[in-house]
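Researcher: Batch entry, complex prediction.
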Amino acid sequence: MRGFVLVARNNRGMSTPVPIELQAPDLSRWASGNTGTAYVWRFDSGRAGPQVMVQALTHGNEICGAIALDWLLGCQAQWQPVRGSLTLAFGNVAAFARWDPAHPDRSRYVDEDFNRVWADETLFGPRDSVELRRARELRPFVDAAELLLDMHSMGEACRPLMVCGADGRGGEKGAALSRQLQVPGVLLIDTGHPAGLRMIDRGPFADPDDARTAVLIECGQHWERAAADVARDTLLRFLGHGGVLAEGFVATHLKQLGRSPPAQQQLLRVTDAVVARSLDFRFVREFRGLEVIARAGELIATDGAHEFRAPYDNTVLVMPGTTNLKVGMTTVRLGRFEN
Ligand SMILES: [Zn+2]
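Model: Structure tokens for the complex:
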């Protein structure tokens, strides 16, 4: 484990120390893949069952998922899919190759956000970027998947949450899947991102009447030790649920991790997005996410003369962040707990 502490900007634009507790794994041994596509591994049971896919490193600086997949591939002598097939992919490996613990945000992506390029217009369009090239390589695997888990982490030290999908576009079936997994504690149904389609919102995943389901786990702060445990715990539950891996293997390793599922899972539905109007956008205090603003009208942020206030009682802040602040950037989303 790296013991040093670096200084990064927190979401008020001040300096706050963020320890890097996780060490990025050496993924070079997985570069060849076994599918003809670099860093993509597929294991087929030869029996009927779901086509399951797990992706890590959608964002190159979110290393907890890579640690979980590196572990699973590394103990491949202990498992074989028992039904269906399992595809394990490291996503934005070009961004990850730039990983530098002294500048951990620089490896998020190379040209553009890899998780905003999944619409057909974009994938099959004329534009080119490092991320688009990789997405075009991975698209056939994504489109063949019936159950997909995309592993992420967050800028702030927020409790783990599952991004289940967009409201009316797959979010409900993602939430149902997460309830079967019994993790995490917070199940988020949002409205997608105007900047571009996420992988979990692609094609049949966004069709409420199609059984194919994709979810995105946010395991915690990017570099906190617990995020790697959350990633492995969620991965094991997901593969156990799909029936791809033997119950014994899943149970043994879940027990070894020793994480208990939350007493209850709460559904959190996004209603609004707060968008920066200027580079003067400031939160009124340091938020990490999932804070509940008790009263409608309470101030959340200022932006020059403009004030952003809670639209209703018990407004929940969803993934606040102003890293690389730009005009037009969503700095926080607002929502309600439903149960
Ligand atoms: Zn991410």
